[in-house]
Amino acid sequence: MQLRLPADVRRAQLVQSAIDVAERVGIESLTVRALSDYADVTKGIVQYHFETKQDLVIAMGEHLIVDVTEILHAALDSAVGTHELPGVRGLRELVHSGLSAVWLLIEKSPGRQLLAYEIKTYLLRHRALGSATAAEIASGQYRIRDSEAQLFFENCSDHTGTRWLEPVESIARFGMATLDGLVLRWLVDGNDLEVLAQIDDLSGLIAAKAEDR
């Protein structure tokens, strides 16, 4: 006999189960049957909470936005709390520590990273078909990630006595977009050492956009 759960709890359980299944088989192979079998519920329960696959993928995207926010916040905060070197040199080291902390968390979850790209692609296709909700979720991860990075870079400059020569929101967008490309390439070739070297290069490029006060 299936355990009766409050609707919000059951919905959250189904979203997490869908993410678990999709990490293994991909978005295209995520079906109502696959999800109901994994979550040990009837297909009717899945369809009650998610009328369409798009509804389910949107909920998965919303869940990953929360994950991204928590990961970035923890990684970047820990970097700021461990460095004391002032000036642009200190800024470079601090930026490098923050990006490296994010990379270490990414490196542990290649399946989750690939799924995040799949969800974005799926939602972007539905945005092209006119889904406003899909469009909002597709861009939401980037907006939240950029805002977390912007706060980190602002803290970096305050902590090291430097100032940015360009708008910090543009620097954050540049840094996160470049890291995004590095992660995608890593998913293709799996070259960890190249990513580490490129993070070092990226840290230098970002620090070059600042000067001592």
What does this structure look like?
The structure is a single chain. This protein has 213 residues and is mostly helical. The protein folds into two domains: 1-51, Orthogonal Bundle (Arc Repressor Mutant, subunit A); 53-212, Tetracycline Repressor, domain 2. It contains nine helices and two strands. It has helices at residues 7-25, 32-39, 43-49, 53-80, 87-107, 110-128, 132-160, 168-189, 192-207, and strands at 162-164, 210-212. It has a two-stranded antiparallel sheet. The model has no long low-confidence stretch (mean pLDDT 87).
Task: Give a short summary of the structure.
The chain has 213 residues and is an all-alpha fold.
User: What name does CATH use for the topology of the largest domain?
Assistant: Tetracycline Repressor, domain 2
Uncertain stretches of 5 or more adjacent residues: none
Query: Using only CA atoms, what is the Rg?
Result: 20 Å
Question: What is the multimeric organization of the chains shown?
Answer: single chain
Question: Helicity, in percent?
Answer: over 70%
Number of strands: 2
- Count of folded domains: 2
CATH architecture of the largest domain: Orthogonal Bundle
Q: Strand order across the biggest sheet?
A: 1-2
Overall pLDDT metric: 87
**Amount of beta strand:** under 5%
Distance between the termini: 67 Å
Order of helices and strands: HHHHHHHEHHE
Q: From the helix content, strand content and strand pairing, which structural class follows? A: mainly alpha
CATH class category label of the largest domain: Mainly Alpha
| Tally of alpha and pi helices | 9
Describe the sheet with the most strands.
Answer: 2 strands, antiparallel
Basic shape: elongated
